[in-house]
Predict the structure of Cytoplasmic protein.
Amino acid sequence: MAKLLHPKATAVWLVDNTTISFKQIADFVGMHELEIQGIADGDVAAGVKGFDPITNNQLVQADIDQAENNPLAKLKLKFNAAASGEEKRRGPRYTPLSKRQDRPASILWLVKFHPELSDGQVSKLVGTTKPTIQAIRERTHWNIANIQPIDPVALGLCKQSELDAAVQKAAAKRAAEGVVMSDDERRKLVSTEQSLEMDAEPKMPSSIEGLETFSLSDDDDDDSEKRSDADFSDADSFFNLPEGDEEEQPR
């Protein structure tokens, strides 16, 4: 569906050059009737140059004449064949400059928690390129050591409904291919809202990781018992050498 170019400037032109009612102009340009009245009073869009919708192929004079004679008539945007299908344009999603630095973190989150998503799906969700996704999958990205996984929904890079739809589509595709998913993968296929309600898996702090299998041996227990039973009341006994080991030192 084609959209109106420069709606506020078009409203300024219609207010200055026609007798169409404020309600008709507001419906055509997608603004509130009070805003159109503010344009007529000079309180809104001060300094905005009018944009002629007739010469710019958005309206025909016959529609304007009909709207001036009939307050109930509605202005219709002129069909433009060049604008057909413009909303179905393929390509990566546009990401604002302020959020582009967050894309690697969101890609790592999707790759880690939803590995069933294809590179094309990830690209559409966060607006990135396939080489970047591949580099993060293979951990060859130049900044991979400093990237922390963050939910793209929390970052505002995509909507929750879009993420859920992509995950469900990937799950259906894997089921059609006969791929058997593990319980851990199946758990990841639920929506983010549901996963947030699940109990968190217990994690061991990295500072003590690897010590869970450490245990004292029986020999160490025996040695500790012997040390506890020994009598060390005589401090000089610590310095007594075994007999026969002492050698005379030359004077």
